[in-house]
């Protein structure tokens, strides 16, 4: 047997060994680098910060990034894993989620704020500066010196030349009295002379009462003969706003000939809404503008507040006295006005410039440093505090506790704010119900529930509230069951097996403030969007409602179905009905519901749907 010898070339062996070594080194270099502890922790944090976004109205919508709900268009809110813990009203988010939600906060503080009351109105005549020129005696208008309206006149300008037989006779009586007096003086009888002088005085007074001036009477006495005509002069300077007569017209005593208005001062009549009356005070400064003078601001004082509310417009009339140099403001012009009262603690109006002053209750434009009399009417002045102003001078202790209006979620009688809790590892927010005072400008005055220094959410609060609703925690629409302030109908009833406890649309806890009536029974929902969805197809949800179980429905239908009209006794028409005590009452014709509603109890015993009723 031959043995075959194999001879291996040494150079080939060396090449194979080098190739294997190169592959080993390359594999080692390609091995993944070990993660450090820091990298591992960062990876865990990244995983923890993975946030899903959902819609508070449609929780079936889940997305990996923020946006709008494809169904209703609402902003999506973050839904994080492990956020169900904590207090009932608390919720936590990651820093990234808070940024994406655009959450902004501010600190509750005490400061004086100004309410801003906007009103509209128009310029009108100052009624105290409007005068009529009328005929004081019967006669004929032989000359009208002012022959059209709108003419400017000065006090004392001639207006009318009037012929009056009655006035002619009274002038003659004056001249006769003067002649008699002169004759008696020459006779030397003192008593007769005194009597004649009395007759002269009486005749002069008679002419004054008929509208003649002292100068006109003197002219008659100098002339020694009566004048056939009497001239009537303007009692004030101003503009002739009405001309009520023509030349040659006969007039009686009291016939109005002209009306003159002094426009050096005008009134601005404004309409203030009922809800703004808490801020309105006599003597307040009002700024207003007119389209006739863009950019120019006029100023006046509130001189009158109508004691009667207009029931149709729900407004109260205010009157502002305004000086009108140059007559730029013309009656009939529309204006927009603003009052900005400063508000102190308790919502009381304060004006440092009025503190300690005295004011006239009839003419509030009259304000003095000390007690005294009104320059216009002579009334005693009263302290400004009696007109509704705060009597204490401005000071830090009177500053109210205020929060921005954007921080409050208001629903019915409840007001909810969200506080950012200090000292938490993650941004944590807590809902709190507060009691609000009046709204002043962009702020609410807080009566209770917050303290100075609390940090509250001013933007993004609705998204936080929506996240709480998703977790079935107390929120704006769903108050805490243990909250005594929510016992007026907002408390959720869950005790009875026979009562509805979940929303038929979304499956959440019901809120008894949100319901519709269907077939005479109330159906409750969890949020404001569900009733509309339910009403699209009510039958779809009936199997989820215990109040509409088959057995109850059949028994009720058989025992309590109404078949005859309680008023006329005819066959009912189910298109004609009214609701009474939560149940429908049907009638035979259109006139019966009105008769029924006059005295429903009269017909109750005829209605089987009410306890003890018989058909």
Automatic annotation (TrEMBL):
InterPro entries: 3HB_CusB, Beta-barrel_RND_2, BSH_CusB, Ferritin-like_SF, HMBD, MFP_Cation_Efflux, RND_pump_MFP, RNR-like. Residues 503-538, 565-600 form the TRASH domain. GO terms for molecular function: metal ion binding; oxidoreductase activity; transmembrane transporter activity. GO terms for cellular component: cell envelope; membrane. The keyword Membrane applies. SUPFAM superfamilies: Ferritin-like, HlyD-like secretion proteins. The keyword Zinc-finger does not apply. Gene3D superfamilies: 2.40.30.170, 2.40.420.20, Ribonucleotide Reductase, subunit A. The chain crosses the membrane at residues 12-30. Keywords: Membrane, Transmembrane, Transmembrane helix, Transport. Residues 471-495 are annotated as: Disordered. It holds the Pfam family HMBD. GO terms for biological process: copper ion export; plasma membrane copper ion transport. PANTHER family: CATION EFFLUX SYSTEM PROTEIN CUSB. Belongs to the membrane fusion protein (MFP) (TC 8.A.1) family. This is Cation efflux system protein CusB. The lineage of its organism: Bacteria, Pseudomonadati, Planctomycetota, Phycisphaerae, Sedimentisphaerales. The gene is cusB.
């Amino acid at each position: 047997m031959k043995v075959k010898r194999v001879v291996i070339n040494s150079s080939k062996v060396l090449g194979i060994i080098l190739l294997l070594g190169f592959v080993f080194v390359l594999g080692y270099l390609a091995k993944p680098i070990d993660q450090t502890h820091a990298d591992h922790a960062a990876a865990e944090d990244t995983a923890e910060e993975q946030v899903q976004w959902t819609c508070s109205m449609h929780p079936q919508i889940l997305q990996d990034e923020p946006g709008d709900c494809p169904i209703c268009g609402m902003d999506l809110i973050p839904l994080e894993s492990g956020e169900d813990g904590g207090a009932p009203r608390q919720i936590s988010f990651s820093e990234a989620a808070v940024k994406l939600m655009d959450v902004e906060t501010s600190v509750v503080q005490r400061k004086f704020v100004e309410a801003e009351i906007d009103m509209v109105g128009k310029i009108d005549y100052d009624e105290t500066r409007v005068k009529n020129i009328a005929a004081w005696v019967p006669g004929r208008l032989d000359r009208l010196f002012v022959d059209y309206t709108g003419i400017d006149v000065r006090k004392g300008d001639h207006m009318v030349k009037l012929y009056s037989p009655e006035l002619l006779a009274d002038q003659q009586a004056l001249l006769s009295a003067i002649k008699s007096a002169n004759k008696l003086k020459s006779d030397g009888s003192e008593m007769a002379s005194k009597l004649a002088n009395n007759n002269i005085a009486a005749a002069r007074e008679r002419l004054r009462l008929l509208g003649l001036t002292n100068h006109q009477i003197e002219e008659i006495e100098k002339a020694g003969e009566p004048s056939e005509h009497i001239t009537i002069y303007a009692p004030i300077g101003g503009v002739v706003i009405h001309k009520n007569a023509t030349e040659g017209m006969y007039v009686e005593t009291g016939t109005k000939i002209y009306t003159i208005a002094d426009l050096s001062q005008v009134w601005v009549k404004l309409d203030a809404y009922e809800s703004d009356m808490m801020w309105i005070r006599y003597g307040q400064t009002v700024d207003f503008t007119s389209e006739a003078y863009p950019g120019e601001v006029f100023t006046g004082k509130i001189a009158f507040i109508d004691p009667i509310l207009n029931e149709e417009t729900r407004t109260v009339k205010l009157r502002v006295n305004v000086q009108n140099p140059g007559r730029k403001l013309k009656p009939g012009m529309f204006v927009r006005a603003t009052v900005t009262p400063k508000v102190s603690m308790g919502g009381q109006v304060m004006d440092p410039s009025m503190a300690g002053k005295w004011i006239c209750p009839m003419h509030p434009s009259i304000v003095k440093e000390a007690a005294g009399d009104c320059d216009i009417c002579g009334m005693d002045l009263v302290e400004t505090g009696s007109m509704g102003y705060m009597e204490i001078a401005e000071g830090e202790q009177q500053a109210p506790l205020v929060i921005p209006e954007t921080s409050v979620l208001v629903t019915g009688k409840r007001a909810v704010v969200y506080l950012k809790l200090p000292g938490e590892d993650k941004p944590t927010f807590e809902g709190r119900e507060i009691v609000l005072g009046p709204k002043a400008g962009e702020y609410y005055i807080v009566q209770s529930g917050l303290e100075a220094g609390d940090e509250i959410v001013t933007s993004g609060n609705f998204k936080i509230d929506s996240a709480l609703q998703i977790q079935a925690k107390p929120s704006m629409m769903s108050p805490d069951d243990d909250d005594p302030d929510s016992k007026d109908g907002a408390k959720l009833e869950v005790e009875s097996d026979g009562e509805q406890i979940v929303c038929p649309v979304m499956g959440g806890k019901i809120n008894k403030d949100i319901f519709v009536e269907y077939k005479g029974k109330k159906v409750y929902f969890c949020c404001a969007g569900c009733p509309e969805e339910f009403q699209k197809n009510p039958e779809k949800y009936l199997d989820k409602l215990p109040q509409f179980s088959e057995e109850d429905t059949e028994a009720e239908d058989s025992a309590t179905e109404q078949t005859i009209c309680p008023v006329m006794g005819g066959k009912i028409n189910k298109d004609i009905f009214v609701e009474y005590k939560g149940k429908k009452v049907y009638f035979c014709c259109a006139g019966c519901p009105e008769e029924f509603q006059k005295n429903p109890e009269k017909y109750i015993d005829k209605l089987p749907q009410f306890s003890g009723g018989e058909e």
